[in-house]
Specification:
Elements: H1 2-21, H2 23-40, H3 46-49, H4 51-73, H5 76-124
Helix pairs in contact: 1-4, 2-4, 4-5
Length: 125
């Protein structure tokens, strides 16, 4: 039984090694996201969406801390917690990216329609 526990710790260390090696970058991106959210909160419109970058920054920071613990202790539950937070981060960022793409497409469509309508009005005048 003790051999299985040692083997499991080795497997957890091996699987968590890539994330453990980039934990510093995860923390940096998390802090920068939190700071960006704080800057958004300084504007009138930005205060509505400022919680999103702050939330994803906290998720990244917590994931980096948990993966560090998982690597050092070989604890399976801590690694699962870290990966769950990382999953939430990617889901949020994926949804935000899709929303951004849709808004950009709509802006181009409305800009194009506005340009066409203004040229038609100039031609009719």
């Amino acid at each position: 039984m003790n051999g299985e526990a040692i083997d499991q710790e080795g497997v957890i260390r091996e699987l968590s090694a890539p994330l453990y090696q980039c934990k510093g970058w995860m923390k940096l991106v998390g802090v920068m996201s939190i700071l960006g959210g704080a800057l958004y909160a300084l504007t009138l419109i930005g205060i509505v969406i400022a919680w999103l970058p702050i939330w994803v920054g906290i998720l990244l920071f917590q994931s980096a801390g948990a993966i560090e613990l998982a690597y050092q202790s070989g604890d399976r539950n801590t690694m699962a917690r870290s990966l769950a937070k990382l999953k939430t981060y990617f889901v949020i960022m994926g949804v935000l990216t899709l929303v951004g793409i849709v808004i950009t497409i709509l802006a181009f469509v409305f800009g194009f329609l506005g340009a066409i309508l203004s040229t038609l009005e100039i031609a009719n005048a």
